[in-house]
UniProtKB/TrEMBL annotation:
Stretch list, region Disordered: 246-267
Membrane topology: Peripheral membrane protein
GO cellular-component term (any): plasma membrane
Classification lineage: Bacteria, Pseudomonadati, Pseudomonadota, Gammaproteobacteria, Oceanospirillales
UniProt-listed Pfam families: ABC_tran
Annotated protein name in UniProt: Phosphonate transport system ATP-binding protein
Localization in the cell: Cell inner membrane
Keyword Nucleotide-binding: yes
Amino acid sequence: MLEISHLTKRYGHDEPVLKGLDLRVEDNSVVAIVGASGAGKSTMLRCINRLVEPTSGSIILNGMELVALRGGALRRARRKIGMVFQGFNLIDRLTVMENVLAGRLGYVSLYQAISRRFPQTDIERAFTLMERVGIAQYANKRADELSGGERQRVGVVRALMQEPELLLADEPTASLDPRTSEQIMMLLQSLASELSLPVLINIHNVAQAKTYTERIVGLRHGKMIFDGAPDDFNEEALDAIYGGIEAPDDATTESPTASREVGHDAI
Ligand SMILES: Nc1ncnc2c1ncn2[C@@H]1O[C@H](COP(=O)(O)OP(=O)(O)OP(=O)(O)O)[C@@H](O)[C@H]1O
C-alpha cells in the first residue's frame, strides 16, 4: 500500500507546485492522475520515486517511509518502484532482452552488469514476462526495430523485472495511436490485478482514464480537487480540474475507442 501525507514540493523560492497532497492507494488499485499541464502530476510521481526531493510530507510504501531514505537504503527502495515512461526510455541499439534485463541492474553486481552475466533466474523471469505481454518473439531484436506499442511493452516488462511493489506510469500512452494506447492501458490494468500491484498513471486522456482505471485523482495547481470513481467524474469535476476549458464531447463518456485528449492539446 502507498500512503502519501501532506506532500509538498516547492522548486526554489517559487510557489509550491504540490500543496499538501494526501493519497492512499491499495494494492491492485489502478489510479489515474489527471490535471492540466503544470498541475503537478509529474512532480508527484517523481517525488514518490525520489527523482525529485519532496519539500515536506511523508510517502510510505508498504510500511517504509521513503522520504527519510538516503544512499544505499534509497537505492534499494527505488528498485521496488517501477517506472514506465511516455518515450519508453529504451536503449535503441540493445536487444529487447538486454533492455528488459536492465530492470535487474539494481540487483546484480557491477561485474555481472558489465559482463552481462545475469543469473539464469533473471533470464527465465524475463521470458515469462515477455511471453505474458506478447513480445517474447522479439527477444533478440534490436529495440529500435519494434513498433511503439511493442516498445512500450518492453518498458513495462523492464519495470516488472524490478519486482516492483509499486508501478508509476508517466503518460504511458501519449506517444501511441489510440488502439495501441488502449491495449497498453488494458495491460497495465490486468497486470495490477495479477501481480497485486498498485499502479499510478499520469494521463491526459480522460476518456481512457475513465475506461481503464478504477479511481481518478484530479489535480489543479498542486491541490487534489477530485478523488473518486470514474462514474463520478462528471462535467463538473472536469470543469473544476481544467478550469472551464472546453473539453471534447466524449471526454466524460466511457468509450473503449475514445482517444481524444483533454489537457495539453486542448489548452
Ligand atoms: N525542475 C523544475 N524546476 C522548477 N520548476 C519545475 C521543475 N519541474 C517542474 N516545474 C514546475 O512545476 C509545475 C508542475 O510541473 P509538472 O511537470 O509536475 O506538471 P504536470 O502536471 O506533470 O504537467 P504536464 O502535464 O505538462 O507534464 C510547473 O509549473 C513546472 O513549470
